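Quick one:
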Amino acid sequence: MAALKNKLENAFNEDRILMLCIQVLIGFDYRAVFEDAFSRLSPVMQHLMLASLSFLILALTLMLAPLSFNWIAGKGGDPKQLHCYIQKMIEWGLLPFTAAMCLDLTLASSRVLSPTGSWVLGSAMLLFAMFFWYALEYYKRKESQMRPDPMSKEEPIELKDRVKQVLVETRIALPGVQATLGFQFIIVLASGFDALPQSLRILHLASLLCSAVCAVFLIAPAAYHRIVLGGEDTEEFVHFASRMLLIALVPLALALSGDVTVVVWKITRSMPLAISWACATLTVMLGVWFGYMSWRHRRTRSLQLAPHGIDARFDNVQPR
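Output:
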């Protein structure tokens, strides 16, 4: 079990590394549209930034998916399955993050280089990242597949490990909320904020409030652990912390979607398109974090109740 526990902890730490990079670029994209120089960019470059922001939110959704998977689909009790799921989400989440990073690099270099030079630089970074994040890994994976799997034997997770795990999961989500909240505060003081319609300024304030509420939910487990339980590891704390973590994802999705509305309107000046884009963003995040996980939990539970298939429910039926 030690090998699996260490692998799971390493997987969460790798997830945190990606979240730190994603939060910085999301903050850059949110802040960029309120800069005076942004209006002087070509429409192509402005739409590149919008595409980058969409890719980053998709990457963030995938990076946070293991949290809801653990406590909704897995009920916090299947470390082997959780490790495999984190591995898949990191593998898939790197794709939109790579695209977003290269688009932002293209946008930034367009202020220094010619349009052709900025596209060449962005494309070169894309190839560079894809080699070190995918090509090299898939080549090395063939060698590692020949080694024995140390996680073939499943054992229950101890309470102290579950407490540590839920705290690590909270630390994964919190940096993204901190960055979003900080940039939302800064945007209020930007010169471009005054040019927004009153409705969008109110929407931005609502998004800022949602981020603050999310931060309160994510910090609540630490306060509960220290003040109520005196730092003791209990099942009560695991239950409370996991519920706070799941609840916090809802205002986080609302905050990101609200600011997506502002960004899309700043670029396209189309309110219907901005609202549609924000609704699609909200649907994807809540669908991945709650809809899919709930469906997967129900499916797993139904398979456990009927391990021999659909006809198992007729096994106990006596002939007349």
